[in-house]
Request: fold
Amino acid sequence: MNESARTPATDLRAPLGRARGLGSTKHGAGHWRWQRITAALLVPLGLWFAWAMVGLLEFGFDHSVFRAWASEPGNVLLMTLFVAAMFHHAALGLQVVIEDYVHGATAKTVSLFASNVGMAVLGLSSVLAVVRLSLGV
Amino acid sequence: MAQAQRPLSPHLQIYRPQITSILSILHRFTGVALALGAVVFAYWIAAASYGETAFERANALMASGLGRLILFGLTFAFFYHFANGIRHLAWDAGYGFDLKTLNRTGIAVVAVAFAATFALWIAAYAAAGKL
Reply:
């Protein structure tokens, strides 16, 4: 493609005006930033979850004991945060892996869609489960 | 348009495996494993909210031989990704880039992952009263 095909003589806009708004304006660092934010959140939340599971083993994961544990306000908050941070972090991480290893425009688009939608649905489903457990319904 | 036959850069198998490269790919590998673990988590927490029968079925699956093996693997994946993730955050902040530190923190991360995995499982068996 030559230069004149992209910029017809009738186009009175300056080069900057044409480029403006076409890029990932101001969102370029969003992926990188959220991967780090969720990672930092998962440091305490991950340890808390692992330790909480060990504590629940003492009761053999009895359903009524688990429900009592899952309806304590502090645990509801931490579980919600843990679920949100985990699924968001997983989606961001899988995205990078897919972008690096899946070649071909169609295969890449389809796998990115499947991964992102899959993680969003599972994350939402888990948050709803946490809420249902906390309300005892 | 036909692809020009340009020379390729040396491929992965040419290089001697090093602590840095092995631990780097292990970070990705454990990350993907943990994403699959998140799927297991989603099933388990959904089962808990469905009721006692579904929850007991999910827990029986987790406690089976294969279930324990998978959970043990996920525990290691978690602690490795956890420790190496902190290493990554330190790099993001600009620390620990010289080769000597890189190798030292790399070995430390593997040691922490193994130690924490065994410690958690010993604590888990002790909590379940099966030790």
Observations:
- Chain B has a mean pLDDT of 94.
- Residues 52 and 58 of chain B are 10 Å apart (CA to CA).
- Chain B touches chain A through 32 residues (CB under 8 Å).
- Chain B has one domain: 25-127.
